[in-house]
Design goal:
This protein is of the alpha+beta class and about 300 residues long. The chain folds into two domains: about 130 residues, Probable inorganic polyphosphate/atp-NAD kinase, domain 1 (Rossmann fold, 3-Layer(aba) Sandwich), CATH 3.40.50; about 160 residues, Tumour Suppressor Smad4, CATH 2.60.200.40. Helix content is about 25%, strand content about 35%. The strands form two sheets. Strands 5, 6, 7, 8, 9, 10, 11, 12, 13, 14 and 15 form an eleven-stranded antiparallel β-sheet that branches. A four-stranded parallel β-sheet has the order 2-1-3-4, with helices on both faces. Bound molecules: adenosine-5'-triphosphate.
Length: about 300
């Protein structure tokens, strides 16, 4: 019997590619043995509901088509379920950090073929209170910018919208008093921001956590200590080159679980989306999801 897949797609992702490609994608999946029905998301939170619903209805495979925002929602819809079918990804968004981290091709035909090959990889999932992430959890003034970029602007300008928003934000940078408690380390000081990485592919900063692995059962914690604007710019540019690890302003360690608290109001950013506020406990759920990836390990995000 043919397997049944549920394709959950965001019609507004990227430059609205799914709207144009859907008939061809469905045909290719069908020929490849996946009987596929679709759910077009209608707004925020809908992909999470659709993914949970698809599991309850017994689908064998879930496919998320969109950017990191859609994927984040689909994973949140799946993570608390006992049965978690394998997940395929069609990276058609503006930012596809996660697909990049797994070497999932950007071209839709190759991405569909990869799902049809049915080779999966187990990956860790990050958990923050009752929410889940795959790439990164962050907090502090810089990390608040991603959900301030309006979706319409993203559709028009793509990645550039983030950088414009980031520059606009620089003069408003301020440190926050934070406490981090984990088995490995306790930190209590004023910090500019913190990033807790599950993968090594973070918004164009591929060298931020060079040895972070999606399968090591650990999170990579980066804390940027209080600094001035000039130092901040210098450290961010050295992070782009992967030369930040020995900077005295940067604290780095690995852990399975960490508690983060602050006397201030601090928002959390999970995979680029608003993820609630502090306090929180951030932990890793080892091998929590099965994702379709390239068996030979040769395909790249292109
Ligand atoms: N029909 C819709 N109209 C508008 N927004 C939607 C719709 N469906 C889903 N969304 C929202 O769009 C957000 C961004 O989606 P997604 O990440 O797939 O696209 P993107 O263009 O790559 O943007 P991002 O830069 O966040 O990756 C999702 O978090 C979701 O809440």
């Amino acid at each position: 019997m043919a397997k049944r897949a549920r394709l959950i797609y965001n019609p507004t992702s990227g430059r609205e590619e799914m709207k144009r490609r859907l008939p061809e994608i469905l045909q290719r999946l069908e020929y490849g043995g996946l009987e596929t029905s679709t759910h077009a998301t209608i707004g925020e939170g809908d992909a999470a509901v659709a993914a949970a619903d698809a599991i309850d209805r017994g689908f064998d495979v879930i496919i998320a088509a969109g950017g990191d925002g859609t994927l984040y929602e689909v994973i949140n819809g799946m993570a608390e379920k006992e049965r978690r079918p394998p997940l395929g990804i069609l990276p058609v968004g503006t930012t596809n950090d996660f697909a990049r981290a797994l070497g999932i091709p950007k071209h839709w035909e190759f991405a569909v073929d990869l799902i049809l090959q049915q080779h999966t990889r187990k990956i860790d999932v990050g958990k923050v209170n009752q929410r889940y992430f795959i790439n990164i959890a962050g907090g502090g003034s810089m990390t608040e910018l991603t959900y301030e970029v309006p979706s319409k602007l993203k559709t028009m300008l793509g990645q550039l919208a983030y950088y414009m928003k980031g520059l606009e934000k620089l003069p408003r940078l301020r440190p926050t008093e934070l406490s981090f408690v984990s088995k490995e380390k306790h930190v209590h000081e004023e910090v500019m921001m913190f990033l807790i990485c599950n993968s090594n592919s973070v918004g164009g900063f591929e060298r931020l956590a060079p040895d972070a692995s999606l399968s090591d059962g650990l999170l990579d914690v980066f804390i940027l200590r209080k600094c001035n604007l000039a130092e901040f710019i210098r450290i961010v540019s050295s992070a782009l080159r992967g030369e930040h690890m020995n900077d005295p302003h940067v604290i780095h360690f690995k852990t399975q679980s960490i508690q983060v608290t602050s006397p201030d109001y601090v928002q959390l950013n999970l995979d680029g989306e608003f993820g609630g506020t502090l306090p929180c406990t951030i932990s890793v759920l080892p091998d929590h999801l099965h994702i379709f990836v390239d068996e030979s390990g040769t395909s790249t995000y292109k």
